[in-house]
Every structure is written in structure tokens, then in C-alpha cells.
Amino acid sequence: MTTNKVLSIYCEIAPRVAYSFREALAGLVDAIPLEMVKIPGGTFVMGAPPTEDRSSNSEHPQHEVTVRSFFMGKYPVTQAQYQAVMGKNPSHFKENGANCPVENVSWNAAKEFCAKLSELTGKNYRLPSEAEWEYACRAGTTTPFYFGETITPELVNYGGNYPYGEAPKGESRQQTTAVGIFSPNAFGLYDMHGNVWEWCEDNWHENYQGAPTDGRAWVDRKKSTNHVSRGGSWSNNAYFCRSAYRINSYADFDLKYYVGFRVVVSSR
How many CB atoms lie within 10 A of CB 266? Predict the structure, then answer.
């Protein structure tokens, strides 16, 4: 599939006007503010169909989930935002700029960020549930990516030498890029595919048998202490960046250079 064909698919799902608010954080000089976009509630089919190329058992069975409205970070948390809240920046790619996503962050560190941000603002910031993340990523689409059947490096920061479907090979940047430089999805969210993996609240489960259908996080620490990440990263093959793809890791493991997060807060 050519870049033009991918772009033509994307044009059909251009972002609609969304309500958002900005959270004031001290010290964000020449940096992107923390902007939260309202994600409308709705029902969607979570997971990949068995016919989707490169889908795995962990993405099955598909199941219907109803999600309540919430606010989600327009971008993954940036290095500047993390520095403003936590007083440090653990990122490997510091030289790429303060508006690149923070990475080298464990699930525990992401949770600590949410707790401190909640204390600063008086709101209940948290990590998204896995269902909220996929619902927000898809933004009404059912294809492997919110752009359509495939992606190209002109649309997403991923390992362009390893395309998906009929897409050609392309640039592999081998590093993070500033948030917001690629096109958003229909909810107005950026970088949901590629750039950095994003932590979710949920414990890891091998498949969706018995998964919640109300959008809440699936927390069962008796079965697994690992947690879910979504979205793929700058280093990954395109198929890792699919809306349904999921991986897991220990809560204190930072998946060096590859993993960050974005925050959500309940709709007000």
C-alpha cells in the first residue's frame, strides 16, 4: 500500500472538534502544556479478529466493551512534564528535546507520577485501563491502525524497515521524536501508534477470557504482577504498533529507551 493510499484512508477519519483542558504545571518554559482531551463514552469491539494479519492469542477473543467518557492526555507525557512534576528526567533521549516523550519509566514510576500530579491538581489522575486505551486509540475504527490497514514512517515513528501489509519499507529513525508532529486520530490524540510504549493500569492476562466489559482495569494480582503496555515504539516492527497489540512487563522494569505513558482523569 502506498503512502498516498494510507493518507487517503486517514482523511476519512479526520479529527472532530473535541473539548479539552490544560493543566497548569510550573516550570514548563517553551514546552508543551499538559493538555487533556475529552474522550466520549461508547461501545466498541476490543481485540483483533482472527483474520487480522499477525494477531496473536493474547488479542482474542474479541469482545464488546462499554466505556464511560473520560479525559486522556493529548500526547504521551513529555520529558518536560515529567521533570516539572517529579523533579527529574530519566530519559535516554534527552538530547532530542524536552517535548519528546519521557521514556525509561517503569510502571511503578508512572504510578508515582500520577499520584504526585493528583496531589498538585486536586484531580484523580491515573493510568488508563487497557480497554480505555484501545478504545481511545481506535477512535471508532476497526482496522489494524487508526489510519487504516497499514502505516508508513510518514505517519508513525516506528521501525520503517519492517512494514505491515502492503506498505513499503521506509525510514527507521532509531530514536524518539517530539510529540504531536504526526497526524492525530479522530479523537484528537497523537502518537497512539509508535514513538513509545504506554503503560496501562491492568495486570497482564494471557487472553481476554473473563475480561471486564465495562471499561475498568482488569486487576488481579494473584494471577500476575506484570502490567500491560500498548502502542509500540520507535524501534518496533509495524505490527507491534497495531491498535490491538499488547505486551507485558514487571512493574519495576523500565523497558529502557522504549516505554513511557499517558495519563487519564475521569470526565467532569
Answer: 12
- Rounded distance, CA 120 to CA 87, Å? 13
pTM: 0.93
* DSSP line for 116-172: HHHHHHSS-EEPPPHHHHHHHHHTT--SSBTTBS---TTT--SBTTS--TTPPP--B
**C-alpha separations of 94 from 60, 77, 175, 206, 256 in Å:** 38, 14, 11, 35, 13
More confident residue, 1 or 64: 64
User: pLDDT band for position 225 (50/70/90)?
Assistant: confident
Q: Angle CA(147)–CA(106)–CA(141) in degrees, nearest 5?
A: 15
Say how far apart CA 143 and CA 134 lie, in whole Å: 12
